[in-house]
Amino acid sequence: MTQSEKLESFYSRLSELHHLNCISALLGWDQRVCMPPAAVQGRAAQREYIAVMAHRKATDPEFSSVVDELYQEIDSLSEDDQVNVREVKRQLDIDRRLPEEFVSEMSQASSVGYSTWQEARPRNDWESVGPLLERTVKLSRQKAELIGYEEHPYDALLDLYEPGMTTSILKPLLLKLADELRKIVPSVLQRFANVSPLKGDFPEETQKSLCHRVALDLGFDLRWGRIDSSAHPFTTTIGRNDVRITNRFSRDTFIPGLYGTIHETGHALYDIGLPQKWLGTPLGSPVSLGIHESQSRIWENPVGRSREFCVYLSRLLPELFPEFATTPDELWNWVNLVQPSLIRVDADEVTYCLHIVIRMLLEERLIVGELAVADLPEAWNDLYVEYLGIRPPDVKDGVMQDVHWYSGSIGYFPTYALGNLYNAMMIESALLAIPDLYEKIEEGQFAEFLNWLKDNVHRHGMRYHGRELIKRITGTDLNPDSFTRYLRRKFLPEGV
Ligand code: CO
Predict the structure, then answer these.
(1) pLDDT band for position 496 (50/70/90)?
(2) How far is the CA of 141 from the centre of ligand 1 (A)?
(3) How far is ligand 1, taken at its centre, from the CA of residue 263, in Å?
(4) I need a labelling partner for 114 at 20 to 30 A (CA). Which of 76, 219, 261, 436 fits?
């Protein structure tokens, strides 16, 4: 085969795989948004069938050898083709190291783990999930060995979610972050001592209108997107010009519903901002979970929880909730309220990363075998006391609160903290390029900022890995300083 024939067959296979992934995404979206509950088994069979087809197509020997051959002649390819071949080869190497029996054992353990966790959590039932988690940890260790690593088995797992990330880079970074956070938390808490959470009556339909309005102002567009409701908010790409988000509401406060929508809108703006002509190839794909999370958090926090955004919001609210009178300052207090909590997903900007540091420390110990699963609940509680000063009263709001470990994802959590570090570094650079960024936010004008993100982050797809991308944008290596500087400036303007 000539090089151009190889490239043609390479791209045509990627496009087939892309179609299969999109069909599966649509089935998944339907399952979570509108499918009747009794259809669950039939749907699982359909998705399994597509997953098997996709796996065969991704690993078949003919395709594998095309990828290997193109990789050998990578220097003679165009810059764009180089990126695509490099990334597909990277993924293929991982896939080829995992034998089929292992993949099916892992996927079975994950799905049993997920459904058992779902039932056991409300009952506070650690006994049911403990042994399953033991199996998942064992399989994850095995996975790390099969994939391979240079220094630390945890590296192999981190790399799955954040390509290029290693324990020796991540751990000092997050421990330094935790130190800084623990220094500022007491003073920040004092500041909020007299603030209680917003409580009122906010009908769902009106909250929906508010969320629609804000999402559209930020740049979400109903020509290429949909907003629906689901039990857990998420964002999914169904295909070219089709990105969907979901939200959920609680009647007594509009804040979680609104900020959940802003978060998912950020994910959606990234997905649609990826070069659509490269869709289905690495150049049209997100860099990593950490970079994806930076794109949701940058809208949710530095933009959405700023004073200027509260001014913008306080102009919208009276039309929608005429009996609810508030001021931008009062809103700012409500949307920023800092309180140590047991639950990661409810955590504020300041304490959030402490939840992640706890999980990273435990994951690392589990993977190297320093910590037995049987001792995990107690180790979890001790770290909560150490880092947040609170002891979970039960496993439901302790070690069983998140689905990740039970469904087989170890190494995933750190990407949430990385999202915060990346976004704080990005907003500093954005402010240099758009000095009146916050004046624009106050006016409800977000287009210039979105364009900055498209230019600096979205349009590159996977051309650069996370740390390389952030260095290109900011000129600085990934570090926690921008994030802690941002928090200090925001919450302790007079100093600690
Ligand atoms: Co997110």
Answers:
(1) low
(2) 26
(3) 6
(4) 261
pLDDT digits (tens, 9 = 90+) for 229-273: 998 899 999 999 999 999 999 999 999 999 999 999 999 999 999
Q: Please pick, among 264, 300, 349, 428, the residue that the annotation labels catalytic.
A: 264
Mean pLDDT on 170-188: 97
Cβ partners under 8 Å of residue 157, min gap 6: 140, 143, 144, 363, 367, 410, 411
Separation of 421 CA from ligand 1 center, angstroms?
14
Whole-Å CA distances, 203 to 181, 206, 209? 37, 6, 10
Return the HEC string of 250-264.
ECCECHHHHHHHHHH
pTM reported for the whole predicted model = 0.96
What residues does the ion ligand 1 have nearby, CB within 5 Å?
Answer: 296
Name every residue whose Cβ is closer than 8 Å to that of residue 171 and which is 6 or more positions away in sequence: 360, 364
Give the pairing type, strands 242-247 and 225-229. parallel
Ligand 1 centroid, distance to 264 Cα (angstroms): 7
264 is annotated as an active-site residue = yes
**Is the pLDDT at 495 greater than 90, yes or no?**
no
Instruction: Give residue 352 CA to ligand 1 midpoint distance, Å.
Output: 13
For residue 316, give Cα distances in angstroms to 128, 164, 253, 313, 328. Answer: 48, 43, 16, 5, 11
pLDDT digits (tens, 9 = 90+) for 325-361: 899 999 999 999 999 899 999 999 999 999 999 999 9
Q: How far apart, in whole angstroms, are the C-alpha atoms of residue 339 and residue 44?
A: 40
- Mark residue 137 as left, alpha or beta (left: phi above 0; alpha: psi -120 to 50; beta: remaining): alpha
Count of CB atoms situated within 10 Å of the CB of 477: 11
Rg (CA), the chain: 23
Report CA-CA distances (Å) from 40 to 37, 154, 247: 6, 34, 21
